[in-house]
Amino acid sequence: MSELLAENLSDKEVMGSDGASLGTLYNVTMDLKTGSLKDLVVDPGERSVDAGFESDEHGNVLVPVSHVQAVKDTIVVDR
Fold it and tell me: How many CA atoms lie within 13 A of 39 on its CB side?
């Protein structure tokens, strides 16, 4: 399994598999009991995004880690 440092994910663009920009990665949440990653916290910026995912109280989009398809120059998530 390839490894990726969290610092390399900061401020990466997050795109849907349909090519729509969801915003930039703000943070990643994890389950403290299991240690597994839970959600990508995506800052939509000034965009009004209907990403099909839940949002937090700050308007950030919460993308379950299970939806991540690829991490390269951008993070691609299944919508």
Answer: 12
